[in-house]
Specification:
This protein is of the alpha/beta class and about 300 residues long. The chain folds into two domains: about 170 residues, Rossmann fold; about 110 residues, K homology (KH) domain (GMP Synthetase, Chain A, domain 3), CATH 3.30.300.20. The protein has nine helices and nine strands. The two termini are about 30 Å apart. About 40% of the residues are buried.
């Protein structure tokens, strides 16, 4: 393990802030160069303040992927928004992600005004710029110029999904960090425990495969992880038992599916992702449990890791 400690080296924490579903997690994965955050077309996918680590020859960036800032409708939502807002005061730089292919709305204006009150440096990324036609680019730029009027925040245009503009954005972020040594070993890409990442990969498959009424009501607990000794010339396998929590019996029925087909599909997708995470063979068994109204119960949220001190 080599820790760089040169006078010209830069390191620090960067909070990714924005509305739900603007592409924060996708951008994290793109900049890191591998999957460390779950993504889906469903808004409010991110619940944990994941720290992803990018180490180069001249800088180490710790990207803090935060939940989208939105108007909460339950206690879980309130805690997620609190988590995102708290991150702003704990970092060296803020990256404000805006959806370049859509006109700015009241949610964007709220976040901009929130950041105006801070003394931290801010970079702006107009994400999904590849979806803006050449004819509409000037109109889009003008709309966001009005939103950001009175600020001196540099604006980048990029596509987190395709990678366009992301290298320049990463370089711009690195240059604005304070001078300092590496904070993590160079080989680390996330500070999250493996169990947390496993649970997130399972939840991602639920988001990808179920209807709109299910995703936001789902949480995942990893109940047991143990190694299965090899038999004969076989290899060691990791056995994982996990429980998927939902709020209603109807959601449990959707998750399991006819003859268990949906749960099997979710499990197969999650198993492949977890095998990549741990670089080994995985046996995954999933259970579904109904916990009514868990998103509004403080004790249950604390047990699931969504405490007020997150």
């Amino acid at each position: 393990m080599t820790i760089v400690n040169r006078e010209d080296y830069r390191s620090g924490f960067i909070a990714l802030i924005g509305r739900p579903n603007v592409g924060k997690s996708t951008l994290v994965n793109q900049v890191v160069g591998e999957k460390v955050a779950i993504t889906s077309p469903v808004a409010q996918t991110t619940r944990n303040r994941l720290r992803a680590i990018v180490t180069t020859a001249s800088a180490q960036m710790v990207l803090v992927d935060t939940p989208g800032i939105h108007k909460p409708h339950h206690l879980l939502g309130e805690r997620l928004v609190q988590s995102a807002r708290a991150a702003i005061g704990e970092v060296d730089l803020v990256l404000l992600l805006l959806e370049g292919c859509e006109r700015p709305g009241r949610g964007d204006a709220f976040i901009v005004n929130l950041l105006r009150q801070q003394k931290l440096p801010v970079l702006v990324a107009l994400n999904k710029w590849d979806k803006v036609s050449e004819e509409q680019q000037h109109v889009a730029q003008q709309a966001y110029a009005e939103l950001l009027e009175g600020t001196d925040w540099p604006v980048h245009r990029c596509s987190a999904l395709e990678g366009h503009g992301c290298a320049d954005l990463a370089q711009s972020m690195a240059c604005r960090l304070p001078q300092g040594p590496q904070l993590y070993p160079a080989e680390m890409v996330s500070d999250q425990p493996e169990r947390v990442l496993m649970g997130e990969l399972i939840r991602e498959q639920v988001l990808l495969h179920t209807r709109e009424e299910v995703p936001h009501s789902v949480a995942v607990t990893i109940d047991r992880v143990e190694e299965i000794p090899p038999q004969g010339k076989g290899q060691v396998r990791t056995a994982i038992l996990a429980t998927v929590l939902v709020e209603r019996k109807s959601q449990k029925g959707i998750l399991i599916g006819k003859g268990g087909t949906m749960l099997k599909t979710i499990g197969q997708g999650a198993r492949l992702q977890i095998q990549t995470l741990i670089d080994g063979s995985v046996y995954l068994e999933l259970f579904v449990k109904v916990v009514p109204d868990w998103r509004s119960k403080p004790q249950r949220l604390n047990e699931l890791g969504y405490g007020q001190d997150r």
